[in-house]
Write a structure and sequence with these properties.
Largest sheet: 8 strands, mixed, barrel
Strand content: 15-25%
Strand order of the largest sheet: 17-18-20-21-22-23-24-25
Distance between the termini: 98 Å
Number of strands: 25
Oligomer: single chain
Helix content: 40-55%
Length: 813
């Protein structure tokens, strides 16, 4: 705290007093100086008067050479106190009379010397009027200036002393006035301001009893009191806001604790800033226990998968990315494995960067996904790998055999007269028989071998690594095949009945030749049918004769090239109906082949070959172009409406072609059609190995007004993660599930699951292969959106399809 002599009011008063004092002294000194100059001028005037007085007698004395008179004139001049030396000269400069007296010393001599000389000499010319005013002599006298100004110095001393005393008194009075009027009120106001309680500023106010008039100090006091009122109001509001914030914070914490997710925030070093109840419970601790702890020290990170834990730690320990997403199994404090979806975003908390981590327990969803994945790769009845799994595994085995120069074998097994069991004893018995056959096959091969069920009563066994000698590989395959045939032939107990069944086995040895899984399966299938033709219950290796049949396939491939060149392909259209209105909302374009000699060739005989011989891309562009022409024809007939779409099947290889987007764009530019008229159907296999590339290409096509449907869902590589990532609008349930939906409970559950899941993901669901009213009723109950199938219409040529649309539109009216 400053004293009164340290305040700005004292310093201001001091400056004012000093300035006033020196200003008074300066003014007094200036006045004295001006008086001094005036006295000097007065001295000159006095000297002239004296000269005038002595001039006549001095002239007479010089003119008459009267020494006595001259001496009398000298003495009369010396009678003046300030004259101390006199000389009277004649016209020749001779002194007639002179006189002097000593100069008295004075304390003011130094002051006189500053402004004037100590003495002044005055000359008076003596003139005679009789002779033309001629000069007859001269009087010279010297004046003691200091003596002449003695009275002036005496008066000045009194004036100067009185001025100093006056200025001193004035300065004291000014200082007292400053203290009384300014310093003292300011000191009091300062003490009152310092005494204000910051916690309760409204309890104190500045007192203003001494400020009766309106002035700056009063205005300052009023302003400070007003400021205190404002601060008090602000403080009151701030307290209210803080209370509201505490209540809001409590509400938010309650809401966060009630969220169906685990929430935790941690700083850059991993220390937990806050968390909700679910997260602390998952860690087996209270919220207060884990607050401030490092998230990497919590047990749940170390009870889960090490690789996932390290990934989480790596991502959350760096702040160079704003967010991340991982998922995997974590272990709670009890050790129970939970599948968590972990999302983290970079946020700012208390002015510092931090991560807000939200963890969702998607264990149930993961179970469904794993179940769907399992169902996509495995047969629901026997639990064996299905055809997609078989083809994928066999392709890998073929590559390995080619790389390592060893042989393997494929056994294509078909049960003999299995239909008789189903027809006589019913499907449940047949299903149980198939399950037991699957068990026996698994027991009859090595762990590294593969047993799969294709469909119905067909099984395939892949024998891997049979050695590098072809003959020995054939012998080993024959021994295993015979062992399996004998195992299958053993009786099956059904109640009191022993069931007997045999099988036909076709074998194809694969080694380092260039071939595909589908070809090997086809060769093994061909060998199996040879067994069927020869009486069943035997083993047959694929031979030269069977190779001839393969040659026929080559002929077919040549004819396909010719068919494409000669434009033997045409498009048929299978209508797609909306479930609620039974209105035709589009169609699926299906390729057909009119052979010049064989007539209509079933699509199953040639479509698969188009891909293998490299024609699928060219034929695919042709289908797109023909689809454009068909849409324009329907539009010109007045039957194409907004929302109608023509579906076209696109193979994965065709879609992933780098030139595909450009090719489709060129076709659309040459054949303009209404916007959003095309729907490309792709299978799930498009996502395998190149999902990011597939998504990029699909998004480019979407910009061209093309939508996408996921075809044959549930038969391939069904994965919820693919379904979430692929930009599809429609989900097509494969006909193989719809076909047995009336009699097969598993298929019914699967179809219902697919429809429900698709709708929950915002997708429209299309059911293929609807052939009976019973199937339609079940699909309606499940909430399916669209239908295709023979129950409504078979694939039709363009003109018939146009007529069907016209008829459907007429019925609506």
């Amino acid at each position: 705290m400053h004293t009164a002599f340290q305040g700005i009011s004292f310093r201001l008063a001091k400056v004012t007093v000093v300035l006033a004092f020196f200003l008074g002294i300066s003014m007094t000194g200036l006045q004295l100086y001006m008086d001094f100059l005036a006295q000097s001028d007065t001295l000159d005037v006095l000297a002239k008067r004296v000269s005038k007085v002595i001039e006549p007698p001095a002239t007479r004395a010089v003119h008459t050479l009267d020494d006595d008179l001259s001496l009398e004139v000298v003495n009369s001049l010396l009678a003046y106190d300030f004259v101390y030396d006199v000389v009277i000269n004649d016209e020749l400069g001779n002194a007639l009379a002179s006189g002097s007296k000593p100069v008295a010393k004075s304390s003011t001599s130094w002051l006189t010397q500053i402004f004037l000389n100590e003495s002044k000499t005055y000359y008076t010319e003596l003139l005679t009027p009789e002779y033309g005013r001629g000069v007859v002599g001269q009087v010279v006298f010297k004046v003691d200036v200091n003596n002449a100004l003695a009275d002036f110095y005496a008066r000045s001393y009194v004036v100067l002393l009185s001025g100093v005393i006056r200025n001193f008194i004035l300065s004291f009075l000014l200082f007292f006035a400053f203290y009384k009027i300014l310093a003292k009120p300011l000191i009091k106001m300062n003490k009152e301001v310092l005494s204000i309680n910051p916690e309760h500023p409204g309890d104190s106010r500045l007192s203003l009893p001494h400020l009766k008039d309106d002035n700056e100090l009063k205005e300052l006091g009023v302003s400070i009191n007003h400021l205190l009122n404002v601060v008090e109001d602000f403080y009151t509001k701030r307290v209210k806001v803080e209370n509201d914030l505490r209540e809001s914070e409590g509400t938010i914490r309650t809401m966060i604790n009630e969220l169906p997710a685990m929430v935790v925030a941690r700083d850059a070093d991993g220390f937990i800033l806050f968390s909700n109840y679910r997260f602390s419970s998952f860690c087996g601790k209270e919220i207060d226990e884990i607050s401030g702890k490092n998230i990497f020290d919590l047990e749940f990170l170390y009870n889960g998968q090490d690789q996932l834990r390290d990934q989480l730690k790596d991502n959350t320990s760096r702040l160079d990315t704003e967010d991340y997403y991982i998922e995997g199994y974590f272990g709670s404090y009890s050790g129970e494995k939970t599948f968590l979806q972990v999302r983290s975003n970079l946020v700012t908390i208390y002015g510092k960067k931090a991560y807000l981590i939200v963890m969702y327990d998607i264990s149930d969803l993961k179970s469904v996904e794993e179940r769907m994945t399992y169902m996509a790769y495995h047969d629901t009845l026997t639990g064996l790998p299905n055809r997609p799994h078989l083809v994928e595994r066999l392709e890998n085995e073929i590559i390995r055999a080619r790389r390592h120069k060893y042989c393997g074998a494929v056994l294509f097994i078909d049960l003999d007269h299995f239909k008789t069991v189903n027809d006589s004893l019913g499907h449940p018995v047949g299903d149980e028989l198939l399950r037991q056959v699957a068990q026996r096959l698994n027991l009859g091969v090595r762990e590294e071998d593969l047993v799969s069920r294709l469909s119905g009563d067909e099984f395939v066994v892949v024998l891997t690594v049979l050695g590098d000698d072809f003959d020995k590989a054939c012998l080993s395959a024959s021994e295993v095949a015979e062992k399996l045939r004998e195992s299958i032939s053993l009786p099956y107990q059904h109640g009191d009945i022993n069931l007997h069944i045999s099988c036909s086995i076709g074998v194809k040895i694969y080694s380092d030749e260039i071939t595909t899984a589908e070809e090997i399966l086809r060769f093994a299938d061909t060998a199996m049918y040879q067994v069927k033709n020869h009486g069943r219950n035997a083993i047959e290796f694929f031979n030269e004769e069977m190779s001839n049949k393969v040659n026929k396939q080559l002929i077919l491939e040549g004819e396909l090239h010719k068919a494409h060149k000669n434009k033997e392909f045409v498009l048929f259209f299978q209508p797609k109906y909306e479930a609620k209105t039974q209105e035709i909302v589009g169609a699926e374009a299906l390729i057909r082949w009119f052979h010049p000699e064989r007539g209509m060739v079933p699509p199953g005989e040639f479509i698969g070959h188009l891909e293998s011989i490299g024609l699928m891309s060219d034929v695919g562009y042709w289908i797109v172009e023909e689809g454009c022409k068909a849409i324009r024809k329907i539009e010109q007939a007045g039957h194409w409406r907004d929302g109608m779409r023509l579906s076209i099947n696109i193979s994965p290889k065709q879609l992933l072609d780098n030139k595909f987007v450009t090719g489709v764009q060129e076709i659309l530019e040459k054949n303009p059609i209404p916007a959003n008229s095309f729907d490309f159907e792709v299978t799930e296999s498009v996502a395998i190995g190149s999902i990011d590339n597939a998504i990029d290409i699909m998004n480019e096509l979407i910009k061209l007004g093309i939508s996408f449907s996921l075809d044959d869902f549930g038969t391939g590589y069904s994965s919820i993660s693919y379904l979430k990532k692929l930009p599809v609008e429609n989900l097509k349930v494969d006909y193989s599930f719809v076909r047995d939906i009336v009699v097969d409970f598993s298929d019914r559950v699967l179809v219902e699951t697919i429809i429900t899941m698709g709708q929950m993901l915002g997708l429209k669901v299309v059911a293929e292969g609807v052939e009976t009213e019973e199937q339609l009723k079940i699909l309606d109950a499940f909430g399916c959106d669209y239908y295709q199938g023979f129950y409504f219409a078979r694939p039709l040529p363009m003109d018939d399809f146009l007529g069907l649309i016209s008829s459907n539109n007429s019925e609506e009216k």
